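Students often ask why we bother encoding 3D structure as a string. The short answer is that it lets us treat folding as translation between two languages. Here is a chain of 358 residues written in the first language.
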Amino acid sequence: MTSSTSLRRVALAVLLVTSQTLVGSAAYAARNDAPLAQAALETEPVASRGDAADDPAIWVNPADPAVSLVIGTDKSRGLNVYRLDGTLVQSLPDGRMNNVDLRDGFALGERRVTVVAASDRDRDAVALYLVAPDTQTLVGIGDGVLATGLTRIYGLCMYAEPASGRQFVFVNDKDGRYQQHELEARPGGRIGLRLVREFRLARQPEGCAADDELGWLYVGEEATGFYRLSAAPDAAVTLDRVDRTGSGRLVADVEGISIYRASGGEGYLLVSSQGDDAYAVYRRRPPNEYVGRFRIGDGAVDGVTSTDGIDVTSRPLPAPFTEGLLVVQDDRNTSPRAPQNFKLVPWNEVRRALALDR
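And here it is in the second language, the structure alphabet:
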């Protein structure tokens, strides 16, 4: 090979890499050109440094919404419980809890309780708690260590079946395996799990969310997109892709998924598009038509980047959350610089940013 031929090939290779980089940068910029919402408040930082805060869940107190709670994972340490002003109520150093979700109304003896479930990476188990409304704290309620048999437990979400009143926990493994467990009341006022269904995704999952009223489960594959399937424990596993990375509207990783539930089955599906610091929004009803995307910029508190877990509620809370509340994990908590935390965004900020009708 002559030196001139070699130089031409090197030049072509450099040109190809440069052009691909420019195209990729242009695509990123186009996707990142999204309207901004602003958070109103933020939680205290988690105790652990580095990649620690991950996933939130919102508990709305039916007796007094003003004393509702945000429950967040510190995946290096345990669970934190916050008031709506972001102050810390309780810290549970119970192990590396990755994802968290909750459901109201589980029948435990003669009581109806709110169950909180978290994926415990130390034990490859599901940790269960109940919310104690009088103290606004969590109390362990699991019947021992609820091991799953998974080897790298990761994401988790819950589902309540309206017709039967049964409640379930979905949990996944980094190798793509999914399990669906039914909550069971056990002697001594404890709660256990019974495995009722298993399925598998081709690639690593994490985030998921179940639409109780409409009966759907939404599951994310971090690198490729997310799918819809039936949440029923006896249903066939048919994965319908809703959106994808690359040619779709998401930039890997696909992370948190949550549902803004309006009346009559209306509302929105929100997905964290971590790779471009954005959130994609879809109609709640299948086929989950794409609505738009937004980011969270600087305002009363600093903006948000590279979000992992999210949760949203449409239930009215004290101002500024009278139309609902979106809680998102913030990867870089910059003002002041501190360990990671969670940002609290009024729903009317999302509605304004995307010109939504509700």
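Translate back mentally: The chain has two helices and 28 strands. Keep this in mind for the problem set.
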